[in-house]
Amino acid sequence: MQPSPFTIPNIRLFIAFRVFYNSRFYYPVFTILFLDFGLTIAEFSILNAVWAATIVLAEVPSGALADIVGRKRLMVFSALVMIFEVGIISFMPRTNPAIIFPIFLLNRVLSGLAEAAASGADEAFAYDSLVSHGNADQWGRVLEILSRFQSIGFVVAMSLGAAIYDPVLLTKLCKFLGSDLILTQDITMRFPLYLTFILAIFAFIATLKMKEIIPESEQADNTEGKTDIKRAFLLTFKAGAWILQTPFVLSVFLFGMLFDGVTRMVVTLSSQYYRMIELPESLFGIVGSVVAMFGLVIPKIARSIAENRSPGFGLFVTAALIFTGLFSMSFFWPYAGLIPAFITFSSMSFTGFFVSFYINKIAASEQRATVLSFKGLMYNLSYGLLGVLYALLLKSKKEGAVLSQELDNKIFVDTFIWFPGSFVLVFIFLILVYWVWLRSKSEKL
């Protein structure tokens, strides 16, 4: 009987790292946290475009370095940078408004570097750990269990993060406990950041306990200048050429970057959307928890589809979910607008599972982290481009108008239809590209 993959220490540490790294307590209030620090929606969009651009520039080189100097080292570096990037905004003084944007800009750059360092390296590390124990066929099961633990982490982070952000709720809690302490937004807005800072430390500890795995195909190269930077560039070009020459992989990446880019941009703006459908801020965390709980169910469904149906079936199921959700969200139904939001957000779990399942299954071990880094590059190129275009769209709507929060809200509502519209146009374009060019060269989707 084949042993459980979860008896492997590296797999348990990989799951712990992912949970600590991604369960960020400020996620349920991400947009309004930036706005409450004094930034505008346009500045927020620009900052996230900078974040994505940083990942685009660092993603593939970091993946190649992970394949050469070791995946563990890149994850240790990523956790260290996370500690610093969360720390600078957690303890940033607000006495000088002029430093707010520059500090958040530094935060976004560091966050992008941390994301790029971990992206690809962590999955390659876990998959090679399975291979070294003869459990490669258990990767789908690992992804399923990982999603469940991440969902639990998200539920805790979303529920607690939104609750401790609300000064009214915390003041009432203090009174219930017999304290006269009155908390303001200036104080409570940092609480989710403090808890995320602690999780960053836990993620760092998890990476230190990992044991590097050197695949057999790479062991012969260890004595031949493994840290040579030239090898990183050669490996990058080799992996890029392989992707372009493997139409199925290229197709997975292209559709993945569209699906992830559009839905992630909407998720980034979700707290502003919740305000527009008249949800009180104290419920943001509960909503985030409900979304996170999808991860307890969706991975099992996605695994069944991936293992028993064609990739094309998963493609159209995910596309239908995204369009239905985005189009319905554009009506901004009070309270009922949560239903299409849930549909949209659930599609991210399908996208993440399918792309990871197919790419890890096909990519060779010696370039797996590099190939996965190309995935991150393409995802964040899409996300960053959408962020820039959306910021330009917002700017064009504001020209000549008196700036106010009410105007920001109105423009947000008026421009939301841009998301389902752009999704449909690009999806049709990619279908044509696949049908005319890639279909004849690859396994059919």
What labels would you give this structure?
globular, single chain, 445 residues, mainly alpha, Growth Hormone, Chain: A, 21 helices
First-last Cα distance: 34 Å
- β-strand number: 0
Name the average pLDDT: 85
Counted up, domains total 1
Biggest sheet architecture: none
The CATH architecture name reads Up-down Bundle
Please count the helical segments: 21
By CATH, the superfamily comes out as MFS general substrate transporter like domains
The oligomeric status of these chains comes to single chain
Shape: globular
Query: From the helix content, strand content and strand pairing, which structural class follows?
Result: mainly alpha
Strand portion: under 5%
Predict the CATH topology.
Growth Hormone, Chain: A
Stretches where pLDDT falls below 50 for ≥5 residues?
A: 222-227
Rounded Rg = 22 Å
What is the CATH first-level class name?
Mainly Alpha
- Order of helix and strand elements from N to C terminus: HHHHHHHHHHHHHHHHHHHHH
Helix content: over 70%
Can you walk me through this structure?
The protein has one domain (7-216, 224-441): MFS general substrate transporter like domains (Growth Hormone, Chain: A, Up-down Bundle). Helix 3 packs antiparallel against helix 4, helix 3 crosses helix 12 and helix 16 (298-308) packs across helix 18. It is mostly helical and 445 residues long. It contains 21 helices and no strands. It is 76% helix and 0% strand.
